[in-house]
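Dear all,

This email documents one entry for the complex benchmark we are building for the journal club exercise. For each entry we list the sequence lines for every component of the assembly. Then comes the predicted three-dimensional structure of the complex as a token string, followed by one or two observations. Please use this as the template for your own entries, and keep the labels exactly as they appear.
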Amino acid sequence: MTIFIPTPLRPYAAGHDAIDVDAATVAQALEALTGSHPDLRKHLFTPEGKVRAFVNLYLNDEDVRYLPAKEATAVSTADTLSIIPSIAGGD
Amino acid sequence: MGILHLTRAVYLALRAHGQQTYPNECCGVLLGRSTAAGWKVEAVVPAGNTRTDSAHNRYQISPLELVKIERDARRQGLGIAGFYHSHPDHPARWSTTDLAEAHWLGCSYVITAVAKGQATVTNSFLLAGVNEEDKRFEPETILVDGEQAKDLSS
């Protein structure tokens, strides 16, 4: 599958905007990604190993948080995983 | 101080968006190309404000909308350079909420003050730092088609 890397994380992914990984689940895909680019880990996960609250993961058009199997959801080579930090604010 | 390069069309569009949504906040995405001289923004994509509970002083872009914007940008060879929003009847400076909820390190956050429905000052702040713990906003100079933005508000 292909993982799309957002602008702020590209410096920690050798400048790539997309990275192909071999994986059977979303969790395996993230493991493969951070295995090849270890500097990404602290930006994606808390010290306890949970995905940071402001990091959104979309499997194609689906929010992984709301998938029944969440990060254990099966993936195929045609799938895409978008990493999208949240954007919000106000005065 | 860093420089954010906008086209005149982008500059006018993001300010007009703030006037359209007044007295609520507008928000949107800046698309461009990263160059040695900084981001050169070529397009602006207005987004919906999902904070309908407090739209006059809060904004949030749906992550799915952002996924789709990013996907379309990628097809055009563009990347997300930053974001913009408005501060209705409030100065064009970042707030503690803006900083707390900013997570796109290295990207620009453009804020337009809209006073009584009219866009006034537009400022840009780079989200600097290497992680959540040391992130900070640094003011940027906005150049519109290579000129200082202050004379191009009409």
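Observations: Helices of chain B lie at 8-21, 63-75, 96-100. The CA atoms of residues 64 and 141 of chain B lie 31 Å apart.
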